[in-house]
Amino acid sequence: MLAAQVLVNAAVLGCLYACIAIGFSLVWGVLNVINLIHGSLIVLGAYLAWGLYQWTGILPWYVLVLTAPLFFGIGYLLQRLLLNRVITAPVLVTLTLTFGLDLILNNAMIYFFKADYRKLTLVPSLGSLSIGGVVVPVDRVIATAFALVLTGLLYLLLRRSRVGRAVVAVRLDRDAAVLMGVDVKSIYAIAFGLGAALAGCAGVLMALIFPISPLTSSAYLGKAFVVCVLGGLGSVSGALAGGVALALVEGIGAVVVGPSYATTLSFLLLIAFLIVRPQGLLGRKGFE
Amino acid sequence: MIRPSIVLVALLAVIALLPLAGDAYALRLGTIACMYGIFALSWNIVGGFLGYPSFATAAFFGFGAYTTGVLMTLGASLPLALLATLVASLVGASVLGAVLLRLRGHYFAIASLSLVEVLREVVNNATDLTGGGMGLNIPLASNASILGDAIFYFYAMWIALALTAAMVVAVSASKLGFGLACIRQNETAANMVGLNTTLYKSIAFGLSACFVGVAGGIYAVWVHYIDPSDVFDILYSVKPIVMSLMGGLGSPVGVVCGALVYLGLEEVVWRNYIQIHSGLLGLLVVLLLLFLPHGLVSLRGRLFRRGTGHA
């Protein structure tokens, strides 16, 4: 029974992890930038959901409609105005720049929202499902479903739309994309905007499940990174595989060595993967 | 290399004269200046000479603080504890470097970043030895007066800084420094011509760790109380990068100047805007990268011929 519960937990958590990681993976794959502000954007999204529910009673999943364009705009402008200036610079520069931006956003959130942990508690509570002894809270199921929907939408966007194909083209071969008449600067901004939008939406979903505090942003960032490495960079299916793999390892690890070693465990896994299988579980070049 | 070394020695001598100013505040500031100097010089070995974006400084610092702290509570004397910390940091980081430095670019950056989190978690969990989240009280090393104490820790940190500077100058003048520059410029080619890149990188990582560890040890004894979230603060990893970017990557004199300028800025910000200090630090980083990517040195033309250092 314990095994079944661990598996179900891992599946649910894994989809959420994938949702956290997918925007990060997109930006990394297309722009070759490690976006350290990703974690703080997730937390900002969570605060948006929390605030709107507190003041107006709007349920978090409706907030997604507002979050996506808002965060897309934020990301688009960040890329256009700041990151674009250093996009060709060495790794250290782009990395440190996003770190600086993250410090600003995180400090602003601590300043305005305080560092207290808050929880979005739905009234009335949605309760939980119990199927054959395996218990899953309904709010988690809903969050997971929306995480899958978001992931699917991104997949469709990248596969079917003109802009999406251009994003994939830039990821595959930047120079060839330029020769085909793709405006790389605007594709970069769109990809970064999409990454930010996904971060914001992931944050809204996280608000349903986890406590909210600016201090949690680095944990989200760490998860996103591990998922990208495990699953392979730059593919939707890879992010899903990586998410479930991480959740599974964490779930089993929590049973075997205790939950307080979660970070150490995922770090060891990360190092092992980077050395043994650097392309990840489903690694391919190309965002498909 | 001769002229920058003279400048470096002069700079260190000026710092050493600080106790003449007398009061405990100047000494506290001086001690932190030496600590930041150690951070910047040490980071510069991996970040500047070798060109790997390392975020591991906080890991070394916390490791050193806890090694010294635990040894002192077990009854070791301060010099012995610091020596043990030096050796442990050197060996530990060299071994770790051989693994971590196989990763390049973003991967290495994030791996070194998560090293900090991992060590913090390990220290948090090893409650028997380290006190876990409750922190660790470190026995007083001397019974001198407040001012005497301040002078003692200032000179302890200053000596560590002088040793770091000597080590960095020695490295940059040696075959090791040349090898590191080769790896920075083209690692594959360096490997092809027979350079043992793994060995070089692992030594560089060890050297960049050992004095940061000692600085952590001195810091722990100086403040008498450490806890995981204090000494494994990720900002300790970021500060040396900012200092080096301010001073100019790859130049030992530049990064020490960067450390001093940074300390001055930080002191002003801390004193006046405590609630938003990390945001202002972020703003500083962003402005620096966008408008002054080659550091303050570039303001004065090319006064110092910097190493072509760029990570």
Polypeptide structure, described:
The complex is a heterodimer of chains A (288) and B (311). Chain A has one domain (2-217). Chain A contains eleven helices and two strands, in the order ααααββααααααα. Chain A is an all-alpha fold. Chain A has a two-stranded antiparallel sheet. Chain A is globular. The mean pLDDT of chain A is 86. The two termini of chain A are 37 Å apart. In chain A, strand 1 (128-131) and strand 2 (134-137) form a beta hairpin. By secondary structure, chain B is mostly helical. Residues 302-311 of chain B have low confidence and may be disordered. The longest helix of chain B is centred in the middle third of the chain and has 28 residues, at 146-173. Chain B has a two-stranded antiparallel ribbon with strand order 1-2. Chain B is built from 14 helices and two strands; from the N terminus they run ααααααβααααβαααα. The interface between A and B is large, with 38 and 41 residues.
| Order of strands, widest sheet of chain A | 1-2
Cα radius of gyration of chain A in angstroms: 19 Å
Number of domains of chain B: 1
Query: What is the CA–CA distance across the termini of chain A?
Result: 37 Å
The run of helices and strands of chain A is: HHHHEEHHHHHHH
Chart the SSEs and their pairings.
The complex is a heterodimer of chains A (288) and B (311).
Chain A: H1 2-31, H2 38-56, H3 60-81, H4 91-113, E1 128-131, E2 134-137, H5 138-160, H6 162-172, H7 174-179, H8 184-209, H9 217-231, H10 236-256, H11 262-276
Antiparallel strand pairs in A: 1-2
Chain B: H1 2-16, H2 24-49, H3 57-73, H4 78-100, H5 105-125, H6 127-130, E1 136-137, H7 146-173, H8 175-185, H9 187-192, H10 197-223, E2 225-226, H11 228-231, H12 235-247, H13 252-272, H14 277-291
Antiparallel strand pairs in B: 1-2
